[in-house]
Design a protein that fits this description.
alpha+beta, 3-stranded antiparallel β-sheet
């Protein structure tokens, strides 16, 4: 919206850009990367590659590949080829870059909203309020705005899986062994135990010539108890890695007791159309949470933002009817994610067995791009906006 000259304020629950809340693993910018670059100042767009990539030397311009391996012996079972650009980015660095020049109020945890005759009022836990003409929820999967807007229809759906993750700092020589499998990331499955193990570079630490590496493990429920300690969660991860190749097993085994372990509830939500009343709408995970097993959520979130920005531009600059355009936006999001969310769910279920074919969404990339991607690209082309 800033690129369209529309005033907007971001209300962020973290106390600062470097707040204590973990920002999750690295994210893959794929089909939405050119779109994001077109909305950014050219210098910021270039800095995605130079500052945010987990390895700036590995930028895929036209095609990338991703292997699914048998965790027992490291043999490659499927190779997924994806056409188009791909940059694996460090999430905190990307977030900080995109925050450049934005009006952000920190430490604002949303509580509720109220639609008034002249606009909408957002209320926060610190007893402050903010008035505006439109409230956009980008709060993530557990959206309080969605809960108020849709009630039970907005409830998340939880899959019968237990998942945990840790970040391990490894020296270059140790990472080089893993990068022989793939230089950025790979996924593996032990079909004997139905355990899925994902490994990804998080970022490079030049001071020590080392890398932060994410290790993510999931398996069918049940898992550790809800009040399990980090030590107990780590012990479960070590036990679940039994039967994996020693090189993979070592990533978890070397983790010291007491190290922070992140517990992840695997969930999704198939969005439904809603009436915006011209005042409230959803974007990103708040608009349709996907499981992470196809790695597409952030790209759909960027597409959401681009479509929404164009709708708001038409409302602000051309006098278009807000309720009509925002309802059409919510309909597009619901229809698009009604196709892609079930694919991510099926990929998640298939990820815990090697008994699937190349048609599985876990490894298949032969799906057409969202039609709205072509629509938004055409809008930019008509404006003759130069690519960054």
């Amino acid at each position: 919206m800033k690129s369209h000259g529309i005033k907007a304020t971001v209300f962020e629950r973290d106390p600062s850009i470097n707040g204590p809340r973990a920002q999750g693993w690295a994210v893959s910018l794929r089909f939405a990367l050119p779109l994001l670059q077109r909305y950014l100042d050219p210098e910021l767009a270039r800095r995605i590659e130079t500052e945010c990539a987990v390895d700036p030397s590995i930028i895929h311009r036209t095609e990338s590949k991703f292997d699914t391996i048998d965790g027992r012996d490291l043999s490659v079972k499927f190779t997924r080829h994806t056409k188009g650009p791909h940059i694996r980015t460090n999430r905190p660095k990307l977030r900080a870059l995109l925050a450049n020049g934005l009006d952000i109020q920190w430490g604002k945890r949303f509580r509720s909203y109220e639609i008034t005759p002249t606009g909408i009022v957002a209320k926060f836990d610190d007893e402050t309020v903010a008035e505006g003409t439109l409230l956009i929820s980008c709060e993530g999967a557990v959206s309080q705005v969605r809960s108020q807007l849709l009630g039970k229809a907005g409830d998340l759906q939880y899959l019968p899986l237990s998942a945990t993750a840790l970040v391990q700092t490894l020296q270059r020589s140790e990472v080089d062994r893993l990068r022989k499998i793939d230089p950025l990331m790979f996924q593996s499955i032990n079909p004997d135990t139905n355990v899925f193990f994902w490994c990804s570079l998080q970022g490079y630490i030049p001071e020590t010539d080392s890398y932060d590496v994410l290790a993510y493990l999931s398996h069918p429920s049940p898992g550790p108890s809800a009040n399990a300690t980090d030590t107990e969660l780590l012990e479960n991860m070590k036990n679940r890695m039994e039967g994996f190749h020693p090189m993979l097993k070592d990533i978890v085994d070397r983790t010291k007791p007491g190290s922070p372990i992140t517990r992840i509830r695997v969930r999704d939500w198939n969005p439904v159309p809603y009436q915006s009343q011209g005042r409230v709408c959803l974007a990103g995970d708040a608009a349709g949470c996907m499981t992470m097993y196809r790695g597409e959520g952030v790209n759909h979130g960027i597409l959401d933002a681009a479509l929404l920005a164009e709708s708001i531009r038409a409302i602000s600059h051309k006098g278009a009817d807000a309720e009509t355009l925002l309802n059409a936006y919510s309909q597009e999001v619901a229809e698009r994610r009604a196709f892609w969310t079930p694919l991510s769910r099926q990929a998640c279920l298939d990820a815990h067995t090697l008994v699937f074919t190349s048609d599985s969404p876990l490894v298949n990339t032969n799906y057409p791009p969202p039609p709205s991607l072509a629509k938004i690209t055409a809008i930019h082309a008509a404006r003759r906006v130069p690519a960054a």
